UniProtKB/TrEMBL annotation:
This is Phosphatidylinositol-specific phospholipase C X domain-containing protein. PANTHER family: PTHR13593, SI:DKEY-266F7.9. Signal peptide: none annotated. Coiled coil: none annotated.
């Protein structure tokens, strides 16, 4: 289920666009219509050529992007909910198809994936969010984007697309990523981690309070203020994620290492075992591990990195041999699957036995947008993308951080309120828009004056919170298919 929420649009009204991003001509059919105005569904039905969209003609252009949309209305009055099932198929093939259900409830639009057959050549996905329309009343309505992609096995997409990406530098391959990748669980017995003012304040003035809170209350604190992902690292890998944003803290009492975000989250020993198991069975998948925030680690870097490198073994890339501009085929030839970036001063690492395996923070450019409104986020991300090929950054990995920065004080003030804000609520506002900006503006491949191999590719790594709530993974995988 796509977890979208927000302020109510008028009458449950949504503007809908369907895009065929797959390599197949497709046919769109609407089925199982329940309490939904059907008057404009014909504009969204029928055959769609590759790279074409619906509605073809007519429709409206209510948003700043200028594309045409058809209006679909959830009925008011007697009904406060409704749904319609959308089916995408390759013409001439009875089965398999890709199907999802659009749902309007209390004037909010969500979606549910109904596809039963992984063998379908295509994959239908949806992204929905509220947008401000053009017009005198400056109204807000739901915008629903339906997109059809090739159905590529996400657990081994780099292998499947090998012919497309093998000659590309790693920093020109689209890599789906997650923000605060290790925050899908937490250990309530560990207390506050050293990176958050709220949990540290609770522990300072009320020692042991976090551990003593009722599980339901502590769970609320975690879900609202700390959690940025709900899938484990193994689940993320299978879903197609290849970049991991990792905050690490050492727990002083136990001597163990955890991901952290206000609380101690995933045990790094467990996380690394999952990663190692996946890489062993998927020898052509390459991952980037970005250890960019390190807490209470002085004097313990060697011990922690031994956990990392013991699991990765010979699969670890070496800065001496491979860089951000090395082609993917070079990683494969050397049987290297993991790039380990570690943000610690070089003098703290130089005497470690595996210092030659560590990429320093100059290997990656990951600017923080620090925006709490989507228009500001769009402006800043657009600027970051525009500077992607500057001399200063052209040889680095490039991370586009597609998240709003939450107003932590506002979240705190409504922490125990049932409808209070949360990191997930911020993600629901931002992620669908980031998805639209990527597809409509930044997933552009521009020729240079020289040759095909030097085309400018604007995206590299894109990260969001709660990766399952938006279709960014199939979009980025498809971006690689079209390179």
């Amino acid at each position: 289920m796509g977890p979208f929420g927000g302020r109510s649009g008028r009458g449950g009204e949504a503007y809908v666009r369907i895009q065929n991003r797959s390599s197949h001509p497709i046919r769109i059919t609407f089925l199982d219509r329940n309490n939904v105005d059907e008057s404009n569904l014909d504009d969204l039905s029928g055959d769609v050529a590759v790279d074409a969209s619906l509605p073809r003609n007519g429709g409206e252009r209510p948003f700043a992007n200028g594309f045409r949309y058809a209006t679909v209305l959830g009925r008011d009055g007697l009904f406060d909910s409704g749904h319609v099932t959308v089916e995408a198929r390759v013409p001439g093939a009875r089965r398999p198809t890709s199907t999802l259900r659009l749902i309007v409830n209390d004037k909010k639009w969500t979606w549910e994936d109904l596809s039963p057959d992984a063998a379908s050549p295509i994959r239908l996905v949806a992204d929905a969010n509220e947008e401000r329309c053009r017009g005198d009343d400056d109204s807000e309505f739901w915008k629903v984007e339906l997109r059809v992609y090739d159905n590529i096995d996400t657990s081994k997409w780099m292998e499947v697309l090998g012919d497309r990406i093998k000659d590309l530098p790693l920093n020109q391959v689209g890599l789906p990523g997650t923000h605060d990748s290790g925050t899908y669980t937490f250990d309530k017995e560990m207390g506050a981690s050293p990176d958050s003012d709220l949990t540290k304040t609770i522990e300072k003035f009320c020692p042991g309070m976090l551990g003593g809170l009722a599980d339901s209350i502590l769970g609320t604190v975690f879900r609202r203020l700390c959690q940025c992902q709900s899938r484990s690292v193994l689940e993320q890998l299978r879903a197609g994620v290849r970049y991991f944003d990792l905050r690490i803290a050492r727990h002083a009492e136990s001597g163990r290492y955890f991901t952290c975000h206000g609380v101690f989250c995933a045990d790094m020993s467990v996380l690394m075992k999952e990663l190692g198991t996946f890489l062993s069975s998927h020898p052509r998948e390459i991952v980037v591990l970005d250890f960019n925030h390190l807490y209470e680690m002085d004097g313990h870097h060697g011990e922690f990195l031994k956990i990392v490198f013991d699991v990765l073994g010979e699969r670890v890339a070496y800065p001496k041999w491979t860089s951000a501009i090395s082609p993917v085929s070079e990683f494969w030839e050397k049987k290297k699957q993991a790039v380990v970036i570690y943000h610690a001063a070089s003098d703290k690492l130089k005497d470690l036995p595996f210092a030659n395996k560590i990429y320093h923070n100059g290997y990656i450019h990951s600017p923080w947008p620090e925006a709490n409104a989507t228009d500001v986020l769009h402006s800043k991300l657009t600027g970051f993308v525009a500077s992607r090929h500057d001399d200063k950054h052209k040889n680095q990995l490039f991370v586009l951080q597609g998240m709003l920065t939450p107003d932590v004080e506002l979240i705190k003030s409504g922490l125990m309120n049932g409808d209070g804000l949360s990191i997930r609520a911020y993600a629901n506002r931002a992620s669908p828009k980031v998805m639209d900006w990527c597809e409509d503006e930044w997933m552009v491949i521009e020729p240079t004056r020289s040759n095909d191999a030097n085309k400018k590719r604007w995206l590299n790594i894109v990260i969001v919170d709660f990766i399952e709530g938006v279709s960014i993974i199939p979009a980025i995988i498809d971006y690689n298919r079209r390179l």
